[in-house]
Amino acid sequence: MIAFILRRLLASIGVLIAVGLIAFAMFRYVGDPVNQMVGIETSVQEREQLRHQLGLDQPTIIQAARFLINAARFDFGVSYQFKQPVADLIGARMPATLELALVASILSLAAGVPMGVFTALHRDSALARLFQALSLIGISLPTFLIGILLIYLFAVVLRWLPSFGRGDVVHIGSWWTTGLLTVSGLKSLIMPSITLALFQMTLIMRLVRAEMLEVMRSDYIRFARARGLSERAIHFRHALRNTLVPVITVVGLQLGSILAFSIITETVFAWPGMGQLFLQSIQNADIPIMAAYLLLIASLFVVINLIVDLIYAVVDPRLRVHLQRAPV
To answer: pLDDT (tens digit, 9 = 90+) per residue, 149-174?
Structure first.
């Protein structure tokens, strides 16, 4: 297992280098950052001086190499728009995005798995059909429309929840902030987390239902019934455990997707997270922020995939030998 982890870590370094080069190549030619930083009255000499200070007059290969070396030290340069270190800007926004993604993932798991199990075991009941109808709605409606509908209902009509922002936050340590310890922070988190979790919840529910139906037709389930095991033991100790392997895969990838594609939800609810910062950087051709954001998301996907592979071995011991022998 240790050898497998080491192989994956070496492969991850190569993936991150490739992503860094792709990110640099994509955003290096999005626009001229000097034009975004100065006004129309700035002279040509001042523009060239600023270009020299930013290192934009150097060959592209040198700029890319310098970017990768600095990124390995978590130094992504200075934002063209905010005139602040990119690491500080992302660090200030990261708690909001991670908090939103974590709560959305917990909600999707806490609701999706039980609903999937229920609809598989009681597929002819009215409640199971209702869950399936809701899952079709949740997987069909776009995220921004769900967010707007929630804002209209709970913020405009009922006036129960705030329509934007993160509410009051509590500072923990030197840079971490959380709204989970304040009433306004919890209220502000409800609608964005539900919006972000709804699609994941419906996906998990339908996957668990399909896997449970497949597992319940297996021979070892019939053998477990013949042994006289209780239905609870059959359903949750045997069937559900064997259902978890594909669910873990989807949940792991969807967690990375929540972090990467929370831009729409953060925009709808004016949530001060990394997604909103990334969108602002695109509008202003802020190359350091865009490249740093993509590298960060790629790193999170690499770490999540490694954790998913390790969880496989815990859930199904038969996979340990396969993981140890699997090529990178």
So the answer is: 999 999 999 989 998 888 888 988 77
Three-state SS for 233-284 is HHHHHHHHHHHHHHHHHHHHHHHHHHHHCCHHHHHHCCCCCHHHHHHHHHHC
Phi/psi at 113 (nearest 5 deg)?
Answer: -65, -50
Kindly give, in sequence order, each residue whose CB lies less than 8 Å from that of residue 62, ignoring residues fewer than 6 positions away.
none
User: Using CA atoms in the order 188, 189, 190, 195, what is the torsion angle rounded to 10 degrees?
Assistant: 110
Helix (H) or strand (E) holding 312: helix 287-315
Q: Are 298 and 15 spatial neighbours (Cβ–Cβ below 8 Å)? A: yes
The conformation of residue 178, written as its DSSP 8-state character, comes to E
The H or E element containing residue 315 is helix 287-315
Q: Give the separation between CA 115 and CA 132, rounded to whole angstroms.
A: 9
User: CA-to-CA distance for 86 and 290, rounded, in angstroms?
Assistant: 10
How high is the pLDDT of residue 328?
47
SS3 172: strand
Tokens (6 digits) for 113: 């798995």
Say if strands 176-178 and 170-172 run parallel, antiparallel, or are unpaired: antiparallel
Query: CA-CA distance, 226 to 96, in Å (whole number)?
Result: 52
What is the rounded CA–CA span in Å between residue 235 and residue 239? 5
Distance CA 47, CA 56 (A): 11
Any idea which residue has 């009681």 for tokens? 122
Give the residue from 148, 116, 110 showing the smallest Cα distance to 132.
116
Model's pTM, two decimal places?
0.80
Residues 6+ apart with CB under 8 A from 82: 89, 286
CA dihedral for 39, 44, 49, 51, sign (positive or negative): positive
